[in-house]
Amino acid sequence: MIYTKKSIFFLSLFSLIACSEEPEIQPQQDKPNIILLYVDDLGYGDIGVNGATKVKTPHIDRLAAEGINFTDAHSSAATCTPSRYALLTGEHGFRIDSDILEGDAPALIASDRPTLPKMLKKAGYKTAVIGKWHLGLGDGNVNWNEPVLPGPLEIGFDYSFLLPITGDRVPTVYLEGHHVVNADPNDPISVSYTGKIGDRPHGSERPDLVRYQADPQHNETIINGVARIGSMAGGEKALWDDENIPNVLNDKAIDFIKSSKDDPFFLYYAYHDIHVPRMPHPDFVGSTDMGPRGDAIAQVDWVVGEIMAELENQNLSENTIVIFTSDNGPVLNDGYMDDAVERLGSHLPAGKYRGGKYSAYEAGTRMPTILKWPSKVAPGTSNALVSQIDLYASLASYLGIKLETGEAKDSLNQWDAYLGKDQTGRELMIEESVVNISLRQGSWKYIVPTTPDRIKRAEWVATDKDIDGGFMKDPQLYNLSDDPSEQNNLASEMPDKVQQMQAIIDHLQNNGFRE
User: Minimal CA–CA distance to 79: which of 12, 8, 135, 17?
Assistant: First the structure.
């Protein structure tokens, strides 16, 4: 056979992709409990172990001291919905054109789709999701006064207690299983995202009633002194108290741990903090000098401490895998003016990395990530390149669950990397932002120019000053080993490298990682 330059390149490409997955390991007999503490909008530099000084995070820092602190760990996307979708399905959100869901969006994960909780149930796990959902519910025409389904119970969770969407959207109610908590048939709930309903004032009508000035999108129904996205009528007894959300969620999480302690369990604990509206409990107001955002970080740390204390109380610490991470990078002003910028001072939410929530730069997906498993994992720091999307295949491999063809098509077995035995991790990894797809190849980072379809779906990005980069007309190429802050674009100097990485990402987008 005659090998041309082009054929040699593609042979190398496919070899690289094929070798990117770690060999399967033998299934283990012990089944550790698994708790995933999934914070919202927390940046890499927002915790003490990663350099934060203006907010104290002693419980998180202890978790890192007793486990592995990952320095190059990523969510799959720079926004919450596609990150959560990828975490639970093992495939990237762009495969179904996932974007940030509206408050009345239908269930994003079909009931017949393989999921992480379904896979864990095959291994005998009891499963629960507690906290923020934001993956859609029902069929897109939800009646909140009747059972709401499909939802988490239809995709593998045995128990669910949810904030159905984000806290800045209506309805501001808890959903336990299929039912709104404290629903009153004499005061039915109505929700609209197309116009005002009911007699609750909107922020645009009564700015004197709101705690924080809001942008036009967030300036509709006022509940608990906060103007939200969308309009809501009824449901007065079901409304949550924003300041008490962490306590309510913690109580539910601890109840689940207690009731499941005799069997292996998986708890997906999805915080609302530090997403807007940032309204920490009075116990934490003023605990930092950074305002509500800093106080909310302190509150996140307290939650970690409460969960870890409960594991100790139940003698579950030794054989429980605790993973602490975030869904996407940090954002300061995200609809409400709560002094996050004005009171930032020397604090660096993203550490030395560029970008944040929504952005294609590293801070959009490079997450604070800690794994603790005392009986199996030695404490330390890992520079391995890992992605949340790999939890699916990694846990399946450890538990001896064979994945079906097409299942979790972007998830790779990176078990050794998660346990600190492999300091390399992935060779190839896709990062998704609102307007760009990027590829990590080792320390190389390539950002694909914004395509027309992404411009169309995210025109709002062009005017959002918090999104570093916005639309990108030209390719961007960075060597993160020399330029971790992505300041020196090498694309024009290295066109062959750009072409090579474009070919790789085209292949992966079309075929997935587990073809």
Answer: 135
> Residue 432 belongs to what H/E stretch?
strand 428-432
Segment 18-27, tens digit of pLDDT: 444 444 444 4
Whether 149 maps to a domain, the answer reads yes
Domain count, the chain: 3
Q: For residue 201, is it within any domain?
A: yes
Domain for residue 21, yes or no?
A: no
Question: Are the C-beta atoms of residues 286 and 295 closer than 8 Å to each other?
Answer: yes
Q: Are 341 and 35 in contact (CB under 8 A)?
A: no
Which amino acid, one-letter code, is at 430? Answer: I
- The DSSP call for residue 95 is G
pTM of structure: 0.94
Same domain flag for 208 and 265: no
User: Is 250 strand, coil or helix?
Assistant: helix
Residues 310 and 365 in one domain: yes
CB 299 within 8 A of CB 281: yes
Alpha helices in 52-185 (DSSP H): 58-66, 80-89, 116-122
User: Tokens for 432?
Assistant: 């998704």
Report how far residue 437's alpha carbon sits from residue 4's, in angstroms, rounded to the nearest whole number: 30
Q: Which of 445, 418, 426, 419 is nearest to 501 (CA)?
A: 445
Q: What is the pLDDT of residue 2?
A: 37
Q: Which residues of the chain have pLDDT under 50?
A: 1-8, 11, 18-27, 465
Residue for token pair 């062009």: 462
